[in-house]
Amino acid sequence: MSTEQLLSIKNLNIYLQEHGSDTRNQIIHNVSFDLEKGKVLGIVGGSGSGKTLTSLSVLSLLHDKFSVTGSIHFNGADLLQLPERKIRKIRGKEIALIPQNPMASFNPIISIGEHMVESMRSHQKLTRKIAKELAIYYLEKMNFADPSDLISQYPFQLSGGMLQRVLIAITLSLQPSLIIADEPTTALDKVTEDHILHQLEIMKEEYDTSMLLVSHDFHVVSRLADEVAVIHNGMLVEKGSIVNVFRQPNHSYTKQLIDASIRLKREKP
Ligand SMILES: Nc1ncnc2c1ncn2[C@@H]1O[C@H](COP(=O)(O)OP(=O)(O)OP(=O)(O)O)[C@@H](O)[C@H]1O
């Protein structure tokens, strides 16, 4: 592995064996790709292609009915070989996940400010006062008009788009080396999608954050990604620079995804 690579996935296979079943099905087949420091890699594929399983395997967040072979080197260590205790330290602090449904990441009875303070204090030695000041700073970065008021609100008082921006602010505050954003805008309308993509652009440009951006939508990925990997039926069918793949897709499945994203862009309200 070159020293520049932050993440290097080699020959990743993921198998599913339901409890009590003798049959083991292979879902991900021999997937390999690298992510350089400071770059964004888009992982694109249709529903059920295996994007989420591939990205969750990096965080060792797969249910125990899945088994994984191959290697996932992150900062030099193979994550598949690390004990859970070490993975837990990496998760959140070194590798953070921005999921599709942000609501599931929040506890409904804890205020936005408390979520931010707690997540920062669980990874860094900070007083509550400093953590609160930092929370306000990062919410300002996410263009919230009144962060001092926002921190006393509860998750149910915020829209899906606002919660997603809070989650990005929390992620920023942890300053991870790698962010995995799994369909971060799929549930949102066009205007909110634009806001979120803009916030992710800020993350990339100001903080030099490396990112795996998972989406079924080529248009979303093309806004941010340097490189793209296309997954179909659990197999990597094409990868390359976003400009080259977008202009001259080699695989017919990639062409279909690009056409679908152009249609989606026209139709999304
Ligand atoms: N918990 C699960 N139990 C059984 N099969 C699963 C589970 N999660 C995923 N799969 C199967 O694994 C395959 C890949 O799923 P995955 O969620 O990675 O796809 P995806 O590309 O992220 O799709 P989507 O965008 O719809 O989430 C699918 O065929 C799916 O049915």
Automatic annotation (TrEMBL):
The keyword Glycoprotein does not apply. Keywords: ATP-binding, Cell membrane, Membrane, Nucleotide-binding, Transport. Its main location: membrane. One of its GO terms (cellular component) is plasma membrane. Pfam families: ABC_tran (PF00005). It is a peripheral membrane protein. It is found in: Cell membrane. Residues 9-258 form the ABC transporter domain. GO terms for molecular function: ATP binding; ATP hydrolysis activity. It comes from the Bacteria. InterPro entries: AAA+_ATPase, ABC_Ni/Peptide_Import, ABC_transporter-like_ATP-bd, ABC_transporter-like_CS, P-loop_NTPase. The keyword Cell membrane applies. PANTHER family: DIPEPTIDE TRANSPORT ATP-BINDING PROTEIN DPPD (PTHR43297:SF2), OLIGOPEPTIDE TRANSPORT ATP-BINDING PROTEIN APPD (PTHR43297). Belongs to the ABC transporter superfamily. This is ABC transporter ATP-binding protein. It comes from Gracilibacillus oryzae.
